[in-house]
């Protein structure tokens, strides 16, 4: 439910100035801190549910998915979640054990948090008190 609410909100928001890729959302999954203890059947079930919601209600809204700071254990997790992704989505996924320069090229420094090589400060979840109201250009 929360995921669908986030998707609906993103669809209604104005795109930030400096956005380079107009084809859809760019999802960044920062895996920093992921470990073996995160591997569980519940995680795979949750991912499968979110994937079904996206395919049914938000098809082709993602331009790119960047999985950054991915530890070696992520390879095992990806084997488990890959069956829930369609071929088109698989072509949009970019994996890296660090933050790739390609991410900055696709998003632009103004849209990327400083923690990931951009110039945007106070971005949730890196700054837990960052709220959309602090960035009026992102309000619907």
TrEMBL record:
Gene Ontology CC annotations of this record: cytoplasm
SUPFAM superfamilies xrefs: CRAL/TRIO domain
Residue stretches spanning the membrane: none
Entry-linked CDD domains: SEC14
Residue ranges annotated for the CRAL-TRIO domain, each copy included: 1-124
PANTHER family: SEC14 RELATED PROTEIN, SEC14-LIKE PROTEIN 2
The protein, known as: CRAL-TRIO domain-containing protein
